Amino acid sequence: MDAGIAQVIDFRAMPPCSDLLDSIFGDKMSSQINVINRIAGVNYALTNDGIEMPIVNILHPSFALDPSTSEVECLRAQYLHESESWLRKPRLLRRMLFGVALRKSRILQGLKDGDGSYLSGMNTYLMKLGPEHMDRSFALSFDAKVAKGIPSTNVRLRLRNMAHLIADELLPLLMNNPVRPVLLLNIGGGTAMDSLNALILIMRKSPGVLTGRKIRIQVFDGDARGAGFGARALDALMAPEAPLFGIDASLDYFPYNWSQPEMLAPFLEKTQETISCCSSEGALLEYGTDKEIYSHLDLMKRYTQSSFSFIASASLDLVHKDMRDEAPIQLNNRYYTRESIAELVVSSGWNIARILEAPTTQCFCIRKPKESLR
Predict the structure, then answer these.
(1) Which end of the chain has fewer CB atoms < 10 Å from its terminal CB, N or C?
(2) Which CATH number does the domain housing residue 187 bear?
(3) Alpha-helical segments (H) within 277-336
């Protein structure tokens, strides 16, 4: 890629980021997971600061979630009930309880770091690990309980749904084009776990379809730390006996501000020569303005081929604004009704092809007009 378009950072050669522990994890901690705490079949990778963490593989039993539609609805109802019960507590008591929990949870500390702004890629990643992976080398005593809660479960299901949507879009194209290279664009991608897990799903469904072709994941984000972990995670997943062994893949990071979407145009043009799609999990539609979202959708529509698809997530508007205003942490994300998501997609000249829901999030795949709805 032309260096004049964007800077590619090789994370494998980067020195440790000295402020990672302070900005993400807080106090100093052991850098490696004790061998007796490792889970068989799970791969591990280092953060930019050398902290070892599990790599989410949604097919591994310790990460796997596969709820039915009725179970998702039950989780949603439970979330609403718990939100209402929390708000019935006196405000002073809520502050005291949250303060105690905050001191004992890296996940909550990460959420607090995003107060008034957005949740970073690495802080989001902590929520994707699940309770079985809250190792004390990087987690605190209350984290396993937080990881069992519905907000964390929702993030894990969101990742699962995104990975399935991406894999299901790519697999037919891969089967019909046995040597064409693959290009996965990821806006606000953080660790790019949706892209990595989509490749894992494809390898499980059709083991040979990814071999013999070049696969590139391009992460466009304002924070390099998530993609640094993602690049090392990809290397670990391609090691012998790992889920992606035998494929030729790379992950590149490009510093990005989605208020300047025109930077994407040269990258989108490259999709004409590849099997490709774009994803944005917990990012563009969660935090972008209407103008920024419409600009991205317009660019994708103009610069990509007919088979190109965009997979994204959006937070559902389930509770009254007064309830959100009373929450101890205020992320600067937006909320949608199902109708407003559909209106945004159609008004931008796209069609919704498929929808998967988590308790508080909708993930959807959109295609250009005249594509069949399934």
Answers:
(1) C
(2) 3.40.50.150
(3) 284-287, 290-303, 321-325
Domain endpoint, select from 130, 152, 174: 152
Picking from 363, 366, 351, the residue whose alpha carbon sits closest to that of residue 315 is: 363
Instruction: Burial-class residue 122 by CB neighbours within 10 Å (0-12, 13-18, 19+).
Output: buried
pTM for the structure as a whole: 0.89
DSSP SS3 for 363: strand
Q: Tokens standing for 204?
A: 């499980």
Kindly report the number of other CB atoms within 10 A of residue 313's CB atom: 25
Beta-bridged to residue 185, according to DSSP, are 218, 278
Question: What is the number of H-type helices and E-type strands within the chain?
Answer: 14, 10
165 lies in the same domain as 307: yes
* Spatial CA neighbour of 305 closest among 267, 350, 263, 275: 275
Residue 48 falls inside a structural domain: no
Same domain for 175 and 147? no
Number of domains in the chain: 2
12: left (phi over 0), alpha (psi -120 to 50) or beta: alpha
Contact between 37 and 135 under an 8 Å Cβ cutoff? The reply is yes
Question: Of 152, 183, 216, at which residue does a domain stop?
Answer: 152
Sort residue 146 into left (φ over 0), alpha (ψ -120 to 50) or beta. Answer: alpha
Whether residue 75 is found in the same domain as residue 175? no
pLDDT band at residue 112 under the 50/70/90 scheme = confident
Q: pLDDT tens across 166-179, in order?
A: 999 999 999 999 99
Domain carrying residue 137: 69-152
| Backbone phi and psi for residue 195, each to the nearest 5 degrees, phi listed first | -65, -45
